[in-house]
Write a structure and sequence with these properties.
This protein has 235 residues and is of the alpha/beta class. 35% of the residues lie in helices and 22% in strands. It has one domain: 3-Layer(aba) Sandwich (Rossmann fold), CATH 3.40.50.1820.
């Protein structure tokens, strides 16, 4: 049975949703960080799916009060507000990690985070802070650096799952991320999928003319890569 977990960052109430693992109250926990739409049903479904892999799931709230956007324009406004202050974004992620650890009763070595689109950027950012988390997985995330983490080592193992035809992430950004992760001495992988656009995991994405489209093969392949990665980093 899922549980609402209230936690706070700079006075803002954030509303996570925790999916405990039946029969293992101290199971490893995987945070699921949402797209620009906020902590919506897609996020909840992915967090609940962690139970099928043997993990507790924690759906992260990046906007506060469990808020989700009602339109593309509102989603963009919500996203841009958090992207305008990357240190705040990182603190919000750290608050979520601490809340998930407390809910699951686990140590950092049994915590991982996955994120989609905006969430992909968020999990990369928390890794960039040298946070002691076991691993992060970015699905069709954005790669631009935050500007406040240069010179830091990345302790988390990193898996990046990327659509080669994603117009939001030019090829130079892929090479730039590879160079950045190497300089930070990270244990990293980048999987690029051909004939694949942005939002390839989202069955509601149907705007190929805008560079956003679901891809069933890439969805399946990337989920399998994530599953193998999580097994390696948190068991």
């Amino acid at each position: 049975m899922e549980k609402i977990i209230d936690y706070f960052e700079d006075g803002l109430r954030l509303e996570g949703v925790f999916f405990p693992m039946d029969g293992n109250k101290n199971a490893p926990v995987v945070l699921v960080v949402p797209t620009y739409a906020g902590r919506d049903q897609f996020t909840l479904d992915k967090a609940k799916a962690m139970n099928n892999l043997g993990y507790a799931g924690f759906a992260v709230d990046m906007y506060g009060e469990g808020k989700t956007g009602e339109s593309v324009e509102e989603n963009m406004d919500l996203m841009n507000a958090i992207l305008s202050d990357r240190p705040k974004l990182q603190n919000r992620m750290l608050s979520a990690i601490n809340a998930a650890k407390a809910a699951a009763g686990v140590e950092n070595k049994k915590v991982a985070a996955i994120g989609f689109c905006l969430g992909g950027l968020c999990v990369l950012d928390i890794a960039r802070t040298s946070c002691d988390i076991a691993g992060v997985v970015s699905f069709h995330g954005i790669f631009n650096k935050p500007g406040n983490t240069d010179g830091r080592m990345i302790n988390a193992k990193v898996l990046v799952l990327h659509g080669n035809d994603d117009p939001m992430v030019p090829h130079k950004d892929v090479n730039g991320l590879a160079n950045e992760l190497t300089a930070a001495k990270a244990d990293w992988q980048i999987h690029a999928y051909g004939s694949t656009c942005h939002s390839f995991t989202n069955k509601e994405a149907n705007s190929p003319e805008m560079g956003s489209a679901y891809n069933a093969d890439t969805d399946r392949r990337s989920w399998k890569s994530m599953t193998d990665f999580l097994k390696e980093v948190i068991g």
